[in-house]
Amino acid sequence: MIDLSGQYALVERSTEILDLMPPCDITELNGYTLYSRCRLEVSTEASKTIVLLGDAIDFQNPLRSNEEILALGINEKNIFEYFKFVGGNYVVIIIEVDSILIFHDAGGVFKVFYTTQGGRKVVASDPRIIRHFTKCSVDPQGFEFYSHSRFQQKHIRLGNRTKYDNVRQLLPNHALNLSRLTTSRFYPLREIARLSVTDAKQHVRGLMENAVEGFGSRYKLACSITAGFDSRVVLAATRKMTEDIRYYTWTRKDPPEKDIDVAVAKKIALDHNLRYEIFSSPHFITKEYEEALTRRFEILDLTVTTKMLHVYQKLKAQKIALLVGFVSEVCKNYYGAFNITGPLDLAKAAHMPLVPYVVEYVEESYKGLSSASQASGIDIRDLAHWEQDITNFAAQRSFYISAEVNCFSLFNCRGLLEIILGTERQLRDKYNHPFYRALIKELWNGLEQYPINPDRKTTAIRIAKRLRLYDPYKRWSTSRGQ
Hints:
By secondary structure, the protein is of the alpha+beta class.
């Protein structure tokens, strides 16, 4: 039985009768069958067809529908440039006489996995779905990595790898040529603009307020509030629509009042008369619910993810979409001051074990990252973090949530991320983040005054950074860990 809720599968020469629950849309596309149970839009002109799976919001023209976005884009010579300011969670499939090209949203939230060998080509949103259509063999070279304590603790995939030797993941900023089973980078290929804080925050303000308007034109909205930078930016972007939006904090603490996120959020909500509620995580998940999820996903971490999904599932019937801050980490200097001069440094910066499986991958990916960094001026550390940790952690978790209840990040837009990455890197420190503070003030003056990440650890790190002690310590501790 295949449960495609919130997902899709594009299968070559599919003629079998499938046990689908619940029923899904079936679309025939040039020798392939597309099975989908998500938003679907198809536009055809002459011999060219464009398929859009999921939700796309044009951050510059927010009231355009999926249909209008496709209709206007079908004749664009540079489709990647056209989608640069299109946010949301989506997969685009472009079908022409002799080629099929696939790419997805900026963070890779709506997933693309594909087979690399074997008789049948299959593309799907999760390896679990692919296994219904073709045999997947576990990669023996990856055993050491997947059994390593680092993976067991964090459950983060390695780049485009999966545990199957014939299944790969399409990384953000890359496109899949399904006809040839090859991938190529389409972003970044040229130098990005360097911007002052004033110019950047004004550009981002307009895009984010547009995005809130666009998502609000399609769904009832619920906005996350925490004590962190990311959700504070998103909250600030909703200033003009607070009467139409519900606000919430998800917590695992019992009682919820022990959670600093809840304490800060309740204060903000009270001061600004926001409709606010707390979503508490259950202590236990039923076996039936866990089994239902594992039929849909190859879930990497059941401990947190299932409880999160169980909470958000309750909003599904209300047709509510969540506004979150996932993917913002692209612009938060997570690899800090770590000096990357070669492939192995990529693994060390990402705290990956230096086992052969990892070494082979970073040696393969380093050249492309280095070339893109040099061409664009985007720091290789930020680009590597985007295409390693963002897609395999923040975006992966966002995908799981989005398959249960619509969940959108105001940061998940390539053009918007580029604007922020165009500011000075020292202004994007994840602990202090002067740019995000300035952006919050620009969007909603006064919200930046409430505590941001007020826990002891973060405060200690901020002090160490002011004394210029943190970066040397981090480099030393990372080298010892290897």
